Please model this.
Amino acid sequence: MIILGVDPGSQICGYGLLDVDKLRINAAGCGVIESTGGTLGERLSHIYNEFTRIITLHQPELAAVETIFYGKNMNAAFTLGHARGAIILALAQQDIKIFEYSPREIKKSVVGNGSASKEQVAYMVQKILNLEFDARTRDATDALAAALCLHNKVKFAVAGLGSSN
Model:
């Protein structure tokens, strides 16, 4: 089973893919989609097209998309919402089951602490998946963390220890 994790952004979107085979989890790829410059419509079109390409190439069965973090800048939150909409549309058009998790829920699932720093999340993702990242790939690391969160939820739901959503 392939799980796609998404760390949405209006300028940089992270994505991470997990290949899950029973108890074995492997990173199947990760990266970022940069959509800087141009109008909002052009950036959203680019995000949509790139996620459609990734979905077509890797054929994920499930997707975990991080919800919006409400900061002080409402305009940024609205723009992020538009980016999430483009991503969710790309997923929905391919009939991929979508799960949404808050940043706090993702951090708690991967690190054990919902207030963990980005560095702590990156460290745990690296240890769990036995990978090396640098600071430029934080958005991809966050996306892999979202995918790991979904994997943990599904794993515990199958074991009868919780729900998958």
Observations:
- The two ends are 18 Å apart (CA to CA).
- The chain has a mean pLDDT of 89.
- The longest helix spans residues 138-158.
- The longest strand covers residues 24-34.
